[in-house]
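Exercise 7.
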Amino acid sequence: MDNKKIIIIGGGLVGSLLGLILAKRGIKISVYESRPDMRKSNISAGKSINLALSHRGLAALEKVGLKDSILQHAVKMKSRIIHSVHGDKIILPYGTREGEYINSISRKKLNEILMNELELIQPNCIRFNTRLVETDNKSKSFTFDIGNGEKLIEKNCRIFGTDGAFSATREYLLSQSSTIKFNYSQSFQNYGYKELNLEPDEFGQFQLENNGLHIWPRGHFMMIALPNPDASFTCTLFAPYKGKDGFEQLISKSNVENYFTEHFPDITPKFNDLADQFFENPIGNLVTVKCHPWHIHDETLLLGDAAHAIIPFYGQGMNCGFEDVFVLDKLMDEKSSWIDIFECFTEARKINSDAIADLAEDNFIEMRDKVGDEIFQKKRKLEVDLEIKHQNYYSKYALVTFRPDISYHEAMVRGRRQDEILMNLCALKNEVDLDTTYKLMCEEGLIN
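Solution. The predicted structure, written as tokens, is:
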């Protein structure tokens, strides 16, 4: 491999982890981050959905020796806790085996830990307030705005683009579409999200059960709540922009208070400043990005949301990005040139990122529309019973979340077929026999 300067554009979660992986290999890097140092300034509230850290992301963190220390800042979520409009609750466990839970963690805290660890190895390798503003295809130069009207130009460097869903690095690949046959699609949901913080009670305790992800499904919209270590909850309303129950109707404090009282009566009284928060925090967008290829020769490579932004309804956006880094690290052991690494990386990850993007869109419908459905609940109970009796049976959710040894694509194909079989059985009034169902799954090659 050559000695080209390596620049990581984007110092978020994936960029910081990638920097750490490369630094631990003794590779000198520079990370250019457009935002200020979050360790020294407060990030705006309401812009980051709480993260659900699970097995794929943990595998990457274990690779850099941070798994256990990071989990100290997380809260275990073992179940979905479904709230009906009448206040009834149904608990649907995520898994039945030891260690099958997801972890609620602050994006900011996780990013800070990764940055600190990176700078322990290579001090001051992260340059903040440094934004990519211009690229030149002929000279292969990258121009960065470093503030105060000053520019920094980098040439003859190897670029890793980890600068998120609206990546400036990806625009560089898009500018060379005719040369590298670059395909790109971006699709927005007709939904936005609004974050709200539920403070601890007067005794500093959680106001809801703290060992689950809470969901208030209301057909075409919903709210969720994830626990934080300080006993607060990060609540997120997902609603259409327009229509009867959409954001366009919520234009006054009384509108907001009446809306929440009508649709979420069990949690609304627990907020002290619901309407104030609602208008202070922005409405976030939900976007899916797919593109291909993710690299130009051995010069530029996209990872994380820059390559495959997905909506957050499988809790896999960060986990998928971390798995990118895990796979790239493995390829660096197996391949002898950057061009081989980049080509194999794109081939390995594209099919899987597309799969989890599609599954996330499926799960959005499931969470808001189906978790309160009687047949769906019967199907979920059947899955749990199958997992208890047959430990080598994994539901679609478990395949995605708890089996990093199985690719996202395989989990999607196998899981969708499992769901089809189980939903058909649960639609019947007859009692479902577990052994017969398990045998059918085995005959179709859905279990290993």
